[in-house]
Each structure stands twice: as structure tokens, then as C-alpha cells.
Amino acid sequence: MNLWHIITSSTPQLLAAGFKYTLPIAIVSFILGLVLALLTALARISQRGGLFNVVKWICSFYVWLFRSTPLLVQLFIVFFGLPYLKIKGFLPHGIQMNPVVAGILTFSLNTGAYCSETIRAAIESIPRGQWEAAATIGMTRRMALRRIIIPQALRVSLPPLANSFISLVKDTSLAASITIVEMFEVSQQITAENYQPLVMYTLVAVYYAIACTVLAWVQKYLERWTSRYVTKAN
């Protein structure tokens, strides 16, 4: 089969899968993961004691669990394993989810665990004097966090967070393992028809590389934009 014919006939299907599943799953998962990451990071740095220590422990356990186990295993547990979590009278059929929902849930939890450490480290990197200065002008800890600390921490954490999103785009290829017809799954289906695995897998790798390169350019722009006042001050 002609190489150019394979590329031109496969490209529309691959791009359609990318725009229908790969990018939407990555974007939605990353947004949900960021929200979860911020809440987890704030809980872990909180100075509250008492029963809130239980919340801190749960957050720490969550981060440890998802950072210590492979993403593929997590996908299998959520999609294939939870339906067997049957509780008589409460979950007689286990927890069954649509593949896309299961994928987004798993990617969100995994992203949240990694990004929470990034955000926590960024917040703790802000000099202690910033907190003290906010307190001297009558700000509560919550006000200082919202108006002073988090804006600075977001600038610091932008590069690693952007890297996490780029990694997530590539990791969506694992969604093929739970029957989501994203780009990699489409390339496998086409390979089963034309028997050209080297061509097809190279082609899908090129499209992933292009997408990640564009995202890297966006990352650089955002870094320059968020650091514009810092650069001028220096």
C-alpha cells in the first residue's frame, strides 16, 4: 500500500479522534485535577488542628496512593474493577461507569495528586515575610492567601503545571485500554486493517508531538506574560 495514501486516508480519522476525545478528555481532566489539587494543597498546609488533622491525613494518603501506583493500573481498577465492588442493598451491581467518565475520573485524580504537590511546594516557597507583612496591615490568613500568596505561587508553579498538562495529553493514549476510541485506539484499528504498524504508530506519534509542541509554545508565552512585571522590576 502506498505510504502517502496511508497517511492521507488515516489523518482525518486520527484528527477526528483527537479533537473528539484526546484533547477534551485532557482539558476536562486537567481542570478538574487542578481544582482538586488546589483544595488538597490548601488542606495540607492548613494550620488547623483537631479533627481537621483527619482531613490532612486523607489528603496525604490520596496523594501518596496516586503517585505510588501506575496510571494504567488506576484506569483498570476504576473501569474494570469497581463494577465488582458489590455491596448488598447499597451497590448490588457495583460501580459501573461510561468509559469516558471513568477515564476523566482517573486522569483527574491522578493529575490532582501530582499537581497538589506542585502547588503546595509553590505556596511554601513564598517567603514567610509575605505572610507577616499581610498580617501587619490587618489581613487574615485567608485574605493573605487569596490576595498575595496564591497569585505569586501560581506564577511559580506555572511551568511544572504546564508540563503536567502536556504529559496528560500524552497519557490519554492509555484510555485506549478501557475502550475509549481516542487517537491511539484509532491508529490500532487502522493498523488491523492495513497491517502497517510502523507507519501508523509513527504517524500517531507525530501528531502527539505536534500537539505537545504547540502546548509548549503556549507555555512559554504564559511564562513570559506572568513574569512581565517581575522582569521589569529586575
UniProtKB/TrEMBL annotation:
A single GO cellular-component term on record = ATP-binding cassette (ABC) transporter complex
Instruction: Fetch the InterPro entries from UniProt.
Output: AA_ABC_transptr_permease_3TM (IPR010065), ArtM/GltK/GlnP/TcyL/YhdX-like (IPR043429), MetI-like (IPR000515), MetI-like_sf (IPR035906)
SUPFAM superfamilies, alphabetized: MetI-like
Record keywords, A-Z: Amino-acid transport, Cell membrane, Membrane, Transmembrane, Transmembrane helix, Transport
- Outline the extent of the ABC transmembrane type-1 domain: 19-216
Q: How does it sit in the membrane?
A: Multi-pass membrane protein
Q: Where are the transmembrane segments?
A: 21-43, 64-85, 198-218
Q: Name one Pfam family in it.
A: BPD_transp_1
Q: Where in the cell is it found?
A: Cell membrane
Q: Main location per UniProt?
A: membrane
A molecular function annotated in GO for this UniProt entry is:
L-cystine transmembrane transporter activity
Record family assignment? Belongs to the binding-protein-dependent transport system permease family.
What protein name is recorded for this chain?
Answer: ABC superfamily ATP binding cassette transporter, membrane protein
